């Protein structure tokens, strides 16, 4: 539970999304008064899953607060009710890519003037380290940097949470593109398969994110999700799976040249995805740096979070 002195009120924007719902759950679990932005009826329309998820949060004790990105005043009014704002709007192109809407949220936070910490939508590769990224995938990083600049120019206190590949998209499928489940017979290995990658259960991302909000050590810093036991190569991940199922998979090695050539003829979202795979599995962009003054590592700061190891994580897929 959050310590009694901390009654920080937390607003999650994008609370019904893939990472957002984990952050709402973690905020409630850690004892914070938790608010979730609810779009007006005209914007929710007939999206029954979204509405029912909001209602389930309400049953668990969250407060629903209405606001729309087409009405800045409604966002200002929502933000004024809380101390911390966490945005989890999607930045991936095969879902709904809407990172730039965050600029409206930054403007609302600036106008409201009461927010003690803002966590923008990040959670993956650190955009500050991706200035060299490939087209067209670099758009995600460029946009996140525009949002960061707006936050810092407005002197809004922030924490950036970065540095993990989501286990649901990268571990359960042994990092295969275009599927979410492990392959039955043969597995595609990127390069030699020996590049270190940070894998993290999405629930743990939620837990670590909420830990930062009242921590002076993460004020105006980047929290990197690089827990040592989950820094694995793709080969190690495949080994874990083979041991679990008692079967060897045929390995097909994909050179970086062949991966990049595969982008030709793909749709835009596909090209973005391949670019990100290239940076993660060939360059090692999640792990190929030392954390300096700008950041902290999550599992070091919060050893009390018992993060899910990938052997444990993969059991459910077997």
TrEMBL record:
GO terms for molecular function: pinoresinol reductase activity. Gene3D superfamilies: NAD(P)-binding Rossmann-like Domain, UDP-galactose 4-epimerase, domain 1. Its EC number is 1.23.1.-. GO terms for biological process: lignan biosynthetic process. InterPro entries: NAD(P)-bd_dom_sf (IPR036291), NmrA-like (IPR008030), NmrA-type/Isoflavone_red_sf (IPR050608), PCBER-like (IPR045312). The keyword Protease does not apply. Keywords: NADP, Oxidoreductase. Residues 9-314 form the NmrA-like domain. PANTHER family: PINORESINOL REDUCTASE 1-RELATED, PINORESINOL REDUCTASE-RELATED. Belongs to the NmrA-type oxidoreductase family. Isoflavone reductase subfamily. This is Putative oxidoreductase.
């Amino acid at each position: 539970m959050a310590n009694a002195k901390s009654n920080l009120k937390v607003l999650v924007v994008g609370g019904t999304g893939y990472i957002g719902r984990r952050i709402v759950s973690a905020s409630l679990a850690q004892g914070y008064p938790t608010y979730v932005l609810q779009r007006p009826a005209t914007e929710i329309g007939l999206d029954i899953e979204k509405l029912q998820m909001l209602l389930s949060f309400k049953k668990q004790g969250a407060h629903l607060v209405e606001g729309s990105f087409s009405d800045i005043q409604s966002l200002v009014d929502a933000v004024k009710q809380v101390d911390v704002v966490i945005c989890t709007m999607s930045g991936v192109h095969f879902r709904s890519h809407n990172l730039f809407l965050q600029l409206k949220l930054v403007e609302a936070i600036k106008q409201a003037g009461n927010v003690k910490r803002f966590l923008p939508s990040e959670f993956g590769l650190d955009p500050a380290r991706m200035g060299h990224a490939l087209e067209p995938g670099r758009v995600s990083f460029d946009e996140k940097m525009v949002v960061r600049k707006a936050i810092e120019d407005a002197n809004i206190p922030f924490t950036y949470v970065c540095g993990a590949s989501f286990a649901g998209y990268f571990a359960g499928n042994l990092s295969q593109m275009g599927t979410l489940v492990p392959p039955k017979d043969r597995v595609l290995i990127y390069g030699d398969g020996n590049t270190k990658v940070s894998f993290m259960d999405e629930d743990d991302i939620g837990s670590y994110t909420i830990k930062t909000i009242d921590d002076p050590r993460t004020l105006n810093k980047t929290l990197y999700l690089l827990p040592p036991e989950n820094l694995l190569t793709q080969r190690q991940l495949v080994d874990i799976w083979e041991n679990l199922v008692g079967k060897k998979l045929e390995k097909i090695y994909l050179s970086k040249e062949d991966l990049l050539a595969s982008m030709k003829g793909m749709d835009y979202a596909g090209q973005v995805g391949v670019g990100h795979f290239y940076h993660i599995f060939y360059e090692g962009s999640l792990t190929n740096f030392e954390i300096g003054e700008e950041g902290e590592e999550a599992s070091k700061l919060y050893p009390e979070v018992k993060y899910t190891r990938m052997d444990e994580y993969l059991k459910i897929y077997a």
